[in-house]
Design a protein that fits this description.
Length: 197
């Protein structure tokens, strides 16, 4: 499967889950490590209707020499995440639970004692996972700095307040499973009162 085919198929899956409403969200895969180059989804299109042609090659700063296609407005953050974490794929969606969780716990969202943590690469018990939260903004350099400041190699996710969630992994498949588990974990955390957790 080409990067374009894989990214379009993955976007269709997330869109069907209601996580890419109104053209929101963007996905990328690393196609070269040195220098870093990524295939990223184009900007502004309905992510549930992408074709394999709707991806752009960008450098670590999100810049492209493609004369036609416009890369995601958030391509530079994908580049920063891939560079810092070593991930092979980065996914960003606008699911609601991550944003509600970031709103309630702006200093970081704590997760513990839940079986689904295993799907996020952590232990179900005796392990506390804190998902970092950074303020939203339109400057990807500022967002990237905030991400890097709170980066921990064992937490492959970032919540952007009043915006959405980024998750990464070795490939799109691992990133998907981490995202699906994290969304479940955050939904549980916002819906169950702290006295019951
Ligand atoms: C509903 S607009 C959302 C955008 O501003 C942005 O946050 C987003 O996720 C998609 O941007 P895009 O440039 O299409 O990749
Ligand atoms: Zn977004």
């Amino acid at each position: 499967m080409t990067p374009g085919e894989a990214l379009a198929a993955e976007c269709a899956r997330y869109a069907a889950m209601g996580w890419m409403r109104g053209t929101s969200g963007n996905l990328s895969v690393v196609v070269d490590r040195d220098p870093l180059r990524l295939a990223v989804t184009v900007s502004g299109k309905d992510k549930g209707e992408l074709t394999p042609d709707d991806v752009v090659l960008v450098d670590a700063g999100g810049n492209t020499d493609d004369p036609v296609r416009v890369p995601s407005a958030e391509a530079a953050l994908h580049g920063r995440i891939a560079a810092v974490s070593g991930a092979g794929a980065v996914v960003h969606v606008h699911a609601l639970a991550p944003v509600v969780a970031a709103e309630r716990w702006p200093g970081g969202v704590e997760l513990r004692d839940l079986e689904m943590l295993k799907g996020f690469g952590r232990r179900a018990h005796d392990d506390v996972v804190v998902i970092p939260v950074v303020p939203n903004g339109q400057d990807m350099g500022v967002l990237g700095d905030a991400f890097e400041e709170g980066f921990r190699p064992d937490v492959p996710a970032l919540l952007v307040a009043r915006h959405g969630v980024y998750v990464w992994g070795d490939d799109l498949y691992q990133a998907r499973h981490r995202l699906e588990c994290l969304e479940w974990l955050l939904r549980f955390t916002v819906e169950v009162p702290s006295s019951r957790r």
